[in-house]
Design goal:
This protein is mostly helical. It folds into 2 domains: 46 residues, Arc Repressor Mutant, subunit A; 136 residues, Tetracycline Repressor, domain 2, CATH 1.10.357.10. The protein contains 10 helices and no strands. It is globular and about 60 Å long. The relative contact order is 0.11.
């Protein structure tokens, strides 16, 4: 092994993403990922529980971000406004490195196992936001509806953001795109009153 270099976790994550894109997730081994950055498999497992976790390791911090954003929303904020603010912050998290987000999405989209894990993670966000709303005194059904509606709008905005990035169109900001989708959802729901 080579001389020690800082940020093994980041280097491993970048190398894994590159190898997954080149070879496919299933055909890439932990040994290959570790070797590509000059560390041992043992070092890899100090940073990640398995090769899937490389794609999902920021989820805990993002989950904490959305939960805190809901909890810290102004007292006067409606449940949907609190969820919207949390998901705009979540969108900004992806916006920090759009290329990495899109490379990751391509790998996840190519694997049924990873898509399933992505849906489980998204469900965890809905549950956490609903829990944070209930902690604010919001009735459980309302809390769940706001969290699920927000998550559905975010999922649609995220898919559109991914497609825009791959198409070569002028890039858009994910938080703004999320707000557009949320406004359209409100319009769709308002139309049910007619």
């Amino acid at each position: 092994m080579g001389r020690w270099e800082p940020n093994a976790r980041g280097r491993l994550a970048d190398a894994a993403l590159k190898l997954y894109a080149e070879q496919g997730f299933d055909r890439t081994t932990v040994a290959e990922i570790a070797a590509s950055v000059g560390v041992t498999e043992r070092t890899f497992f100090r940073h990640f529980t398995d090769k899937r976790e490389v794609l999902f390791y920021g989820a805990e911090a993002a989950l904490e971000l959305v939960t805190r954003a809901v909890a810290e929303a102004p007292e006067s904020a409606s449940p949907m406004v609190a969820v919207s603010g949390a998901l705009q912050a979540f969108g900004a998290f992806f916006q920090e490195d759009p290329r990495r987000a899109r490379d990751r999405d391509a790998v996840v989209s190519a694997s049924a196992e990873l898509r399933e894990r992505e849906l489980v993670k998204l469900d965890a966000f809905s549950l956490a936001m609903a829990g944070a709303l209930r902690e604010r005194g919001v009735e459980p059904r309302t809390a769940t509806l706001a969290a699920e509606a927000g998550a559905a709008a975010f999922k649609i905005a995220y898919a559109e953001w991914m497609a825009i990035g791959r198409s070569g169109e002028k890039d858009r900001e994910l938080p703004g795109l999320f707000l557009e989708v949320l406004a359209e959802l409100t319009s769709v729901l308002d139309a049910t009153r007619d």
